[in-house]
Input
Amino acid sequence: MPNLKLAARTLFKTPFVTLIAVASLALGIGANAAIFSLFNQLLLRPLPVPQPEQLVNLAAPGPKPGGETCGIASDCDDVFSYPMFRDLERQQTSFTGIAAHFLFDANLSYKGQTLNGEGVLVSGSYFPVLGIQPAAGRLLMQADAPSIGEAHVVVLSHAYWQSRFALNPSVVGEALVVNGRTLTIVGVAPRGFDGTTIGATPKVFVPVTLGSEMQAADKQPDSRRSYWLSLFARLKPGATIAQAHASLDPLYRAIINDVEAPLQSGMSEQTMARFRAKPILVEAGARGQSGIPRNAGPPLRILLGVSAFVLIIACANIANLLLARAIGRAGEMAVRLSIGASRAQLAMQLLTESLLLAACGAAAAVFVAQWTLDLIVSVLPAFATVGIDWTVDRGVLLFTGATATATGLLFGLFPAVHSTRPDLAVALKGQAGQPSGARLAARFRWALATTQIALSMALLVAAGLFAKSLLNISRVDLGADVEHVVTFGVAPALNGYSPQRTAELFARLEDELAALPGVTAVSDALVPLLAGHNKAHDVSVEGMTPGPDTDMHSHYNEVGPGYAQTVGMTLLSGREFTRADAERAPRVAMVNQAFAKKFNLLPNPLGKHIGRARTAPDAEIVGVLRDASYSQVKQAPPPQYFRPYTQGDAIGLGSLTFYARTAQAPGDVMADILKVVSAIDPALPVEDLRTMPEQIKRNVSLDRLITVLSAAFASLATVLAAIGLYGVLAYTVSQRRREIGLRMALGAAPAHIRAMVLRQVGVMTAVGGAIGLAAAVSLGRLAGSLLFKLDGYDPAVLSESACALAAVALLAGLLPAHRAAVIDPMRALRYE
Output
């Protein structure tokens, strides 16, 4: 306690310096705490279930003839068919149980009020395998999913129970309409449990056997050619992943070879061999199943490294500050040593000061961490923030405290050890010159400043690379002029609409939207443009006889009349769809240039016929469109064909995305759109209402986030490095006042003195910059997968960053150089 009181008095003797130090630490620690919060939630934190380390995820890579449906829970390589799941569940002996799940969009209606949200189809083994207990009622069990289409029950998530039902336990037993089907509420999941998929917050858990009724799965979910389920399991006590895989793999291969291989047709010998040999994978599953950690891992690791660089630069500043203060207290340390204080006691006192400084920085860092998280939320689209805690929680506080302690020891250790050297007692003699050991301290300060410059250079290059990458993205030719387009989605099938009512609703919406003031064109599509969604399958092409392994894959979309005109695509030849292309009209299609090139339809695809694989080409190509982006801004336009939605699956699926082109600001018609939909059906939710420019920003939100944060961190690091460089130079000038005075007394001109100081700046900048450039090239290679049409060693970015750092270093050195040049030789040498 005496050490702490003395440390507080010492720090508050120089409040301005202490404030600067605390602010530097707060920025460095706070930035790290914010990024760690995301890193922990997405990459480290296990599921809130008993013994999560016993959970494993199953994956099924290899050929998947038929249809695949995948999402954020699992890649398409990982999903299983429903019959395969049942076979494995019934025959396996390696686990206490295997569970299946699948996310779906849900319209939830309770007492006449409808809310759109997310649901998850789960097997009866889902909750027993996880081992969690209900907050009310009961959870789903094996008896709730005996066969397809049975057991109309539902479990609520705790968050939905709290927000919609005010934690009322009597809701158990009442009816909830989910996607037009009346289900009985049987229970509530425990608090804090939001399923097993990071990034998803389902409101309801529904038996997997109701997949078709929820419009969430294939119309024949029991098909072995329909792959859509994500599987996980729990190891038996004492079992290992290797043992489980060794037991499960022969069972899986037997099902593949004895049951599924005989069902396949049209495969080449090579593909059949791959099909028969495909393995099943068993991987650690403590963190659940989600593609988000795989996608977010590389950028989060980069950002965590960047924020760590910022913290190191801040620590270097504080170490320089404490070292300068310690040398200034050489006399005090010498006196205390001479009257009996031990070196350990003095070092402990100085470390207490540094730890107190770190503690103050940590307290302020909590606010910086929250501001950083708020900044990230402002950059990311709303959907990307779901399922993540954007507040400073207990884990972040513990990380902040641990980081503060480590940094306090890091930047306080050398000053404490150096300033308590026993030979400091020579300071009592009052001799002129520098204290003993000052040369070592000077070298240490120079090394710290050079390190700061190197780290700043690396961060500036990284920020420049990400900024240029984002600039390249903004220059991508999308092939569509969407500047004045508004988009939104409706899913009437989720409200129980029949196909006939759905078709009538779509047509009425097209007419009423087109009649709105300022709207110049209206259309719709099954697959929303640049929203990250994909639909693709093999096709048949007139006059083309493919071999067993010929690539006949194509993306597709089902669209309404005037689609190309509405979204700004260019019609190269032929015509667009019209209302005359109705269900019973002759089948028609449009193709893009990439499709025509891939399937050898050039120079004139018009009049040729195409169709789905294994069917006769029945749709006549009536139009050719210029290539345009489909799912992702950063992906090249894929081969794609279009069908009228009235001749496809959209009406049966009961969901479309609408587009309205406006002659005025797109935001002006949004309120009118809501009124139009509400007037037709007040219970029909409008989903994802936004302008297309906003949609494009959502599509590249990760790139924007990395660019904003890396630029912010690089700017902060450069400012901190400049402050550190200034501090080193200013202190050096003050220590060399006598030397500089002597030089001037012997005839040195002020310009020469100024050049001498700036030469030191140049040396440190050159050495640190060279080291930083080497580190930046390595960092650029690590970040190569995140860059768009850009190398990690872009010469322009490297040279621009070097020039920017040189300019900042020069500015940091100008004031100390000027002060050195105006030193009065007589005053400097007065006591010589």
Notes: The chain is about 50% helix and 15% strand. The first strand starts at residue 55 and ends at 59. Residues 52 and 286 are 5 Å apart (CA to CA). The two ends are 43 Å apart (CA to CA).
